[in-house]
Amino acid sequence: MKRIMKTLPALLIFLSTFTAGNAQLTEIVVLGPIGGTFTRTGFSVSIANDGSIVVIGAPGANDRGGAIGFFEENGSTYTQKGLTLVALAGDYLGSSLDITDDGSMVLAGASTGSYARFYKNIPAMSSVLTYKSGDGVAYSGDGSVTAVRRSDSLWIFSNAGTTWNLAAGLKIPATTTFGPEGPQLMTISEDGNLILVGMPHDKNDTGGVAAYHFNGTNWAQLTVLRPNGHTGASQFGSSVSMSSDGSRIVVGGQGDDAGQGAFWTYTFNGTTISGGLTKQMGTGATGNAGQGAAVSVSEDGQVLLIGGPADNNFLGAAWEFHYQSGNWSQVGNKITPSVITNFARFGSAIDLSEDGTKAIIGAYDQERAYVYGRGSVGVDEQQNEFRFKLSPCPAQDNILLTGDLNSVVRIRIMDLQGRVVKNLVGPFVNGIGIDIQNLDQGAYIVCIDTENDQFNKKILIAR
Asked: What is the pTM of this model?
């Protein structure tokens, strides 16, 4: 094959229709522990957009001072990047984390020490600013908007270089006092205009989610979400996540139905949040799994991971869902860790890369974090495979995509490791040329994302 490819001119061969969504995430590497023993490594996790950098919190390290570890993709594994950062005893640094899209800045909460720290310049990771509030933290995509929570208060900052400018201080409308809880109680949209704050102990553990919106001038509370069809003390708001534009929102409730757990999905149209009419859960749980303790939606809104750290005597599990034809559908069986121990609490913290091709899952009672990816690519026939046409075939420098492009929101070309090598965002007109001159020879996938579906083709560039 190598000899044949050397003699061929540059061309693009369309092999078959492909659905990336049908390939379940598989384990790549296990990381941890960080900072010794009894560290709670994996209590919080975050991953950069392209999946190349992951950050892991270990709030129990250094006599519960806490620690943060940074790891970078290196071939088929991940290696530590820079030093492990530690804090003073009792601070619980790493109880919550968030990373900017490009992985250059990290925000870390220290719930007991009551501060949030902002780090930049990876791998130097120098601490730049400290703010006295740290029960929960969240970044906008580029880090220009920061949200930190302290008990019943939400503080929102606009960031300019190394300066945090206070934009708003708002009340969190919880009727039940709550302090340090799970690591994924807050999320913020890519543009920094929508913030969700989970209140799982509100109204006697029924729970709720407070939504805040920036109208271009001021921040204000938009609404409070409540669980529809819940059973018992659902702890709705145990975790929250949204797509980059906030159009798809997921809320976990780990206490629902005596601890089985569930999740609810919503949509946001820019002014109103709607949905959440029925709860969902993954199949195949063993015992009361606590599903919804952690949730993460990929930024493109196509992939969802649900954590159930109490599954199977607290070994823990995760469930993968893909957005297809307007609904979230489970893909494959539940995901479990390769290292089997009781009380691992795998699935207690979860984060997905931009397109859902990589994920990091925490198991803090096992002192580990697991990185997942799509190591292999599956092929699937779709009924509408001729809805879009790529031409010519073979192609050399460009390909032309035609068809019903009014419904297309994004076009991506990915390599077989799930890395996006070209990303085009709509709106599109009928007939768009895609430049492929800078792509190396090898197999790729062209992903055509519409509002409700995904159409893909596996391709090959041969020279």
From this structure: 0.77
